[in-house]
C-alpha cells in the first residue's frame, strides 16, 4: 500500500500537505470557499444506494442560502411522497461548504428511483427497502477471492473479464512465491510463502495488513454466533464467491483460511534462527510496474526480516482461527493454536524487533516501533481461545487496558498499526472466562468509545462518525470511518441503543454518496461511484483490455496529505473531505486494499442483518 509511488517512478518525499486553516463564516462567498474546482454534480447529497425502510433517512444540500429551503421527496413516477424544510447548518469545516440538512425518516414506503429536490436541484436516485445491502455483503467479500495469490481466478465464479491465471505460483519465474530466498545475518534459506491475498494496488503480501484483514473477516462470522439478529446463512457454505463450495465449511471461513495458510507459512520454522517469529512481508525485489497482471510479473520475490509486530499479528489471527475452525477442521484448528502459542512465546523473547520505516524498496515499509497494541490483541485472542491465566494477566496488566483513547483512537478505532481495539471488541462480545466485573469493564470501554463516535456523527452535517485530530483526513480515511462504525455497531449489539445504530447508517450514507463530493466510494454502487482505483490488474483507465475494479471495491478516500503527484497537482488547497480524485495514479486517495475492504465487509454484513431483522431495527 504505502510507497506505491515508487511503482510509477515517482517520489513521495518531496510532497507536503497543504495547511488546513480555519474557515471564517463571514468570508464565505457562495456555497463553497476557494479551492480546486471539482465537478460534484447535484448539490443535493443522498445515499445513492438507499435507505433502510425503518432506518434514519437524512441528506445534505450545498447552498449559499442561509434561510431554510423547501425539500420534496418524489417517487420514480414523479409522485410527491413527502416534503418539508431544510435546517441550516452553516459552514461544514471538513469541506468548507455552506450546507443545510433535511430529514425524511418518517417515510417508510419501499421503492426504487426516489429523488429529493431542494431549491430546484434534484438528487441522484436511490431506493428505500430492506435488502439494499445483500449484494454489497457478497461483493465486498468477493474482493478477497479476486485478489488471491497462487491460484487461478475462475471465470465461472467472477466472469470472463475478471478471470486470470494464477499469480506467483510455482510455474512463475523463480518459482514465484513457492521458493522465495531469505538472506540475513548468516541465514540463507528459501521458503514457500505461497497463497494469501495481494495486499493492495501492488502485489506485495504483508503480515501486518493480512492479520487485521483476516481477523475482521473472521469476526464478521463470529458475530453471527453472539449478536441477536445476526444471520450466518449469507456467509455459509455455497453462498459466496469462493471455489470451495460444498466442503461443509462456511464460505467466509474458506476465504479466511486462504489467508491463514499464508500467514502460517510466514512463520520462521523450527531449527532456523528466530524460530517462531513471522517474516514481516514478501513482495517483488523492485516495485511492480503498472499495469501488470500477477501471472505476468517476472520479478524475483523477496522475504523481509521477521518483526515483533508481524509475529503478534500471526499469534492473534491464528488464535482466533483456532476457535472458529474447531467444528469444521480440528486438525487445522490445532495447528493454528500451536502456531499462535509459538508466535506469542517468540514475540515475548524478541519484543523489540521492529520493521524499518525505510524498508520501502519494492513494497510498503509498514514500520511500527510501538507494539503494545499488538501484544494486547494477541493476549486477548489467546485468552478467549484457551482461557489460560497467563494471557489474561498480559492484557489486564497492559497500560492500554482501561484507556479508551489508546484502545480506540479518536481518528480511527483500528488500523494495521493500531490493533488493540480488535482484542477489546472480542473480549466484550465473544464468550470467555473473564469475571462478570472484568467483562462489564471491557464493555464499558467499548460503549464509551462508541459514545464519542456517535457524538462526532451527530455534530457532522454529513453524519460521518470521523473527527480526526486537527481536522486533517488521513490516508485511507474511509477505512477509519468504517472501523469507527464497527465500534458503533458492536455497541449497538451490546446495548440495543439506536443512537449507535443510526450513526453506523449515517456512516454508510457518507460512504455511498451523502458526502461533500457527492461520490460513492464503492465500485458499482451509486450513480457516481469510484471505478478508477489504483490497482495493477484492475487498470482499465491505463489499458482498455483490462477491467475496472470489481463491484464492492472500496476507495481509500479523502487524504489531506496528497502524497502522489496527481492528487498534489489537481487537489492542492483542497478542504480535507474534498481531497479525493478518482484517478488510477492518485494512489494516496484512490488505492484499494484488503484492510479497507475487510471493515466494509463487516459493516455490510451488519447493515444487511439490520434490514432483514426485526430485532436489529427495533427502536430503543
Oligomer: single chain
Category from helices, strands and their pairing: alpha+beta
Terminal Cα span: 41 Å
Largest sheet: 6 strands, mixed
Plain-language structure description:
There is one protein chain. The chain is of the alpha+beta class. The protein is 34% helix and 12% strand. It has 16 helices and 15 strands. Strands 2, 4, 5, 8, 9 and 10 form a six-stranded mixed beta sheet that branches. It has a four-stranded antiparallel beta sheet with strand order 1-3-7-6, with no helix packed on it. Strands 13-14-15 form a three-stranded antiparallel beta sheet. Helix 11 packs across helix 12. It is globular and about 75 Å long.
Features:
single chain; 620 residues; alpha+beta; six-stranded mixed β-sheet; four-stranded antiparallel β-sheet; 16 helices; 34% helix; disordered N terminus
Furnish the topology, listing elements before pairings:
Blueprint: E1 44-45, E2 50-52, E3 58-62, E4 70-74, E5 80-85, E6 87-92, E7 97-103, E8 111-118, E9 121-122, E10 126-129, H1 134-146, H2 155-158, E11 180-184, E12 187-191, E13 205-206, H3 207-226, H4 251-265, E14 278-284, E15 301-307, H5 308-325, H6 330-349, H7 372-386, H8 389-396, H9 404-407, H10 420-429, H11 436-459, H12 477-495, H13 498-511, H14 565-570, H15 587-590, H16 594-611
Parallel strand pairs: 2-10
Antiparallel strand pairs: 1-3, 3-7, 4-5, 4-8, 6-7, 8-9, 8-10, 11-12, 13-14, 14-15
How would you briefly describe this protein structure?
The protein has 620 residues and is α+β, with helices and mostly antiparallel strands.
Amino acid at each position: 500500500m504505502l510507497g506505491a509511488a515508487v511503482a510509477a517512478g515517482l517520489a513521495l518525499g518531496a510532497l507536503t500537505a497543504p495547511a488546513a486553516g480555519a474557515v471564517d463564516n463571514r468570508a464565505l462567498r457562495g456555497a463553497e470557499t476557494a479551492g480546486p474546482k471539482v465537478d460534484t454534480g447535484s448539490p443535493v447529497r443522498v445515499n445513492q444506494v438507499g435507505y433502510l425502510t425503518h432506518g434514519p433517512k437524512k441528506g445534505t444540500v450545498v447552498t449559499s442560502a442561509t434561510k431554510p429551503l423547501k425539500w420534496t421527496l418524489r417517487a420514480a413516477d414523479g409522485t410527491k411522497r413527502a416534503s418539508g424544510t431544510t435546517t441550516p447548518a452553516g459552514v461544514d469545516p471538513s469541506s468548507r461548504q455552506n450546507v443545510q440538512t433535511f430529514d425524511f425518516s418518517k417515510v417508510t414506503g419501499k421503492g426504487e428511483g426516489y429523488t429529493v429536490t431542494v431549491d430546484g436541484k434534484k438528487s441522484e436516485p436511490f431506493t428505500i427497502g430492506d435488502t439494499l445491502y445483500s449484494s454489497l455483503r457478497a461483493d465486498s467479500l468477493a474482493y478477497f477471492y479476486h485478489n488471491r495469490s497462487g491460484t487461478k481466478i475462475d471465470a465461472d465464479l467472477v466472469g470472463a473479464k475478471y478471470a486470470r491465471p494464477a499469480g506467483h505460483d510455482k510455474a512463475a519465474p523463480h518459482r514465484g512465491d513457492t521458493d522465495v530466498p531469505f538472506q540475513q545475518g548468516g541465514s540463507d534459506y528459501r521458503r514457500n510463502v505461497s497463497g494469501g491475498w495481494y495486499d493492495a494496488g501492488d502485489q506485495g503480501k504483508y503480515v501486518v495488513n493480512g492479520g487485521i484483514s483476516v481477523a475482521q473477516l473472521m469476526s464478521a462470522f463470529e458475530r453471527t454466533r453472539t449478536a441477536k439478529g445476526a444471520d450466518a446463512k449469507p456467509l455459509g457454505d455455497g453462498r459466496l464467491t469462493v471455489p470451495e463450495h460444498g466442503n461443509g465449511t462456511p464460505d467466509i471461513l474458506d476465504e479466511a483460511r486462504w489467508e491463514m495458510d499464508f500467514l502460517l507459512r510466514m512463520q520462521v520454522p523450527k531449527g532456523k534462527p528466530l524460530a517462531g517469529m513471522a517474516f514481516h512481508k514478501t513482495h517483488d525485489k523492485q516495485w511492480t510496474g503498472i499495469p501488470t497482471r500477477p501471472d505476468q510479473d517476472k520479478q524475483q520475490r523477496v522475504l523481509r526480516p521477521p518483526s515483533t509486530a508481524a509475529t503478534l499479528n500471526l499469534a492473534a489471527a491464528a488464535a482466533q482461527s483456532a476457535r472458529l475452525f474447531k467444528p469444521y477442521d480440528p486438525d487445522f484448528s490445532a495447528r493454528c493454536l500451536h502456531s499462535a502459542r509459538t508466535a506469542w512465546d517468540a514475540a515475548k523473547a524478541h519484543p523489540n524487533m521492529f520493521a524499518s520505516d525505510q524498508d520501502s524498496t519494492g513494497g510498503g515499509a509498514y514500520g511500527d516501533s510501538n507494539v503494545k497494541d499488538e501484544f494486547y490483541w494477541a493476549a486477548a485472542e489467546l485468552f478467549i481461545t484457551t482461557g489460560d491465566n497467563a494471557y489474561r494477566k498480559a492484557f489486564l496488566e497492559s497500560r492500554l487496558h482501561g484507556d479508551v483513547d489508546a484502545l480506540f483512537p479518536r481518528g480511527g478505532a483500528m488500523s494495521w498499526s493500531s490493533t488493540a481495539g480488535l482484542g477489546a471488541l472480542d473480549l466484550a462480545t465473544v464468550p470467555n472466562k473473564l469475571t462478570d466485573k472484568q467483562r462489564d469493564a471491557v464493555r464499558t470501554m467499548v460503549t464509551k468509545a462508541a459514545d464519542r463516535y456517535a457524538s462526532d456523527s451527530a455534530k457532522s452535517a454529513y453524519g460521518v462518525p470521523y473527527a480526526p485530530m486537527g481536522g486533517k483526513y488521513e490516508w485511507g480515511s474511509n477505512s477509519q470511518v468504517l472501523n469507527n462504525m464497527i465500534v458503533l455497531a458492536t455497541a449497538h449489539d451490546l446495548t440495543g441503543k439506536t443512537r449507535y445504530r443510526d450513526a453506523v447508517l449515517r456512516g454508510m450514507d457518507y460512504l455511498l454518496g451523502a458526502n461533500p463530493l457527492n461520490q460513492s466510494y464503492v465500485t458499482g454502487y451509486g450513480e457516481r461511484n469510484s471505478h478508477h482505483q489504483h490497482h495493477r490488474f484492475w487498470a482499465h483507465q491505463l489499458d482498455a483490455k483490462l477491467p475496472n475494479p470489481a463491484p464492492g471495491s472500496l476507495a481509500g478516500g479523502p487524504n489531506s496529505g496528497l502524497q502522489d503527484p496527481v492528487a498534489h497537482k489537481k487537489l492542492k488547497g483542497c478542504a480535507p473531505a474534498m481531497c479525493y480524485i478518482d484517478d488510477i495514479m492518485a494512489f494516496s486517495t484512490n488505492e484499494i486494499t484488503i484492510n479497507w475492504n475487510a471493515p466494509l465487509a463487516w459493516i455490510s454484513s451488519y447493515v444487511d442483518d439490520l434490514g432483514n431483522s426485526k430485532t436489529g431495527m427495533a427502536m430503543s
